[in-house]
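From the shared-data thread, chain only:
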Amino acid sequence: MNITRIYTGIYTAEMNGQQVGSIFADQPAGGIAQGGMRHYTACFRPNPKAEGFTFSGSLKACKQWMNNWSALA
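Structure, as tokens:
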């Protein structure tokens, strides 16, 4: 699984050359986290026709969650 930063607060997740998910900040792109930790949402969707799975937490937790799902796929 490759997780690549596209822009501040926006990441894409690719596996075997296919996009299977994304991670994005719950604040506007480029926004500044004010007074606390920035929250992220990860979406893992190995099948583009399916709804997929989501998770919210810190960037580190979201990356770990994505890697855990990719190990199962």
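The longest strand covers residues 18-25.
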